[in-house]
């Protein structure tokens, strides 16, 4: 079996003395997991987390680990290596992708948004807001697409000051009154997104990715 696409190398961990297990977020097949032979000892074209490139994945059977052939064309995160704040956001993106997205399930829109977000970090702007926008897209792909256009209870488009943690839909002041303590406030923030991610992780029986926890801790401080 052979799969070919373009992708972003989002995770790399040693496997023996020479090889590595890699996670590559591909445009056509989502998260792909496989072996990168010689990745640890490579001196030329060394695989690095944050690279973008062409990828092929080969396995004898569909359920096998598979082996990557990886041809990087650029390192997306190289321009921000001196910015701890931006690197923290990149690490959180990669951590969430590898932890929460199922293997070999395509998420083309999220992939494109991820690629655009990473490229945009080399410029200027409110990167926390851009990261939040990316995270809301991820949450939507995982079953909590936020609909903040009208009240989920009565349909009004006015006084929408709350979000339902159960549905991700807006709630007006009147409908929210009996349940204020259980609802999230508008507009959505990184803390709001963190709560949705906690629920997603809890439902899946997994721990919140460590780099996302680190961002939450910094914001609280």
Q: Can you walk through the features of this model?
A:
- By secondary structure, the protein is of the alpha+beta class.
- It has a domain at 1-75: Beta Barrel (OB fold (Dihydrolipoamide Acetyltransferase, E2P)), CATH 2.40.50.
- Helices cover 34% and strands 25% of the residues.
- It contains six helices and eight strands; from the N terminus they run βββββαααββαβαα.
- It has helices at 84-100, 108-120, 127-141, 173-176, 190-204, 210-220; strands at residues 2-15, 19-26, 30-36, 51-58, 67-75, 160-163, 170-172, 184-185.
- The strands form two sheets. Strands 3-2-1-4-5 form a five-stranded antiparallel β-sheet. Strands 7-6-8 form a three-stranded antiparallel β-sheet.
- Strand 6 (160-163) and strand 7 (170-172) form a beta hairpin.
- The longest helix is centred in the middle third of the chain and has 17 residues, at 84-100.
- It is elongated.
- The termini are far apart.
- The mean pLDDT is 93.
Could you give a short description of this structure?
By secondary structure, the chain is of the alpha+beta class. Helix content is 34%, strand content 25%. The radius of gyration is 20 Å and the shape is elongated.
Oligomer: single chain
The CATH architecture of the domain at 1-75 can be named as: Beta Barrel
Instruction: Report the top-level CATH class of the domain at 1-75.
Output: Mainly Beta
* Global outline: elongated
Radius of gyration equals 20 Å
What string, H for helix and E for strand, traces the elements in order? EEEEEHHHEEHEHH
Number of helical runs? 6
Q: CATH-wise, what's the superfamily of the domain at 1-75?
A: Nucleic acid-binding proteins
Mean pLDDT: 93
Poorly predicted runs: none
Strand order of the largest sheet: 3-2-1-4-5
Helix content: 25-40%
Distance between the termini: 49 Å
Q: Largest sheet, described in full?
A: 5 strands, antiparallel
Total strand segments: 8
């Amino acid at each position: 079996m052979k799969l070919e696409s373009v992708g972003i190398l989002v995770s790399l961990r040693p496997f023996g003395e020479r090889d590595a297990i890699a996670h590559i977020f591909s445009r056509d097949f989502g998260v792909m997991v496989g072996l990168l032979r010689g990745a640890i000892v490579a001196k030329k074209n060394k695989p690095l987390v944050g690279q973008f490139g062409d990828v092929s994945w080969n396995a004898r059977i569909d359920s096998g680990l598979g082996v990557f052939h990886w041809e990087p064309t650029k390192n997306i995160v190289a321009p921000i290596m001196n910015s701890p704040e931006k690197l923290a956001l990149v690490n959180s993106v990669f951590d969430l992708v590898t932890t929460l997205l199922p293997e070999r399930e395509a998420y083309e829109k999220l992939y494109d948004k991820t690629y655009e977000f990473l490229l945009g970090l080399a410029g200027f702007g409110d990167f926390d807001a851009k990261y939040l926008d990316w995270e809301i897209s991820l949450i939507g792909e995982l079953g909590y697409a936020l609909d903040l256009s009208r009240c989920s209870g009565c349909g009004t488009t006015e006084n929408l000051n709350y979000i339902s943690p159960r549905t991700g839909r807006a709630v007006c002041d009147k409908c929210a009154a009996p349940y204020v303590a259980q609802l999230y406030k508008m507009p959505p923030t990184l803390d709001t997104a963190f709560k949705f991610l906690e629920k997603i992780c809890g439902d899946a029986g997994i721990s919140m990715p460590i780099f996302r926890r680190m961002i939450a801790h910094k914001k609280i401080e």
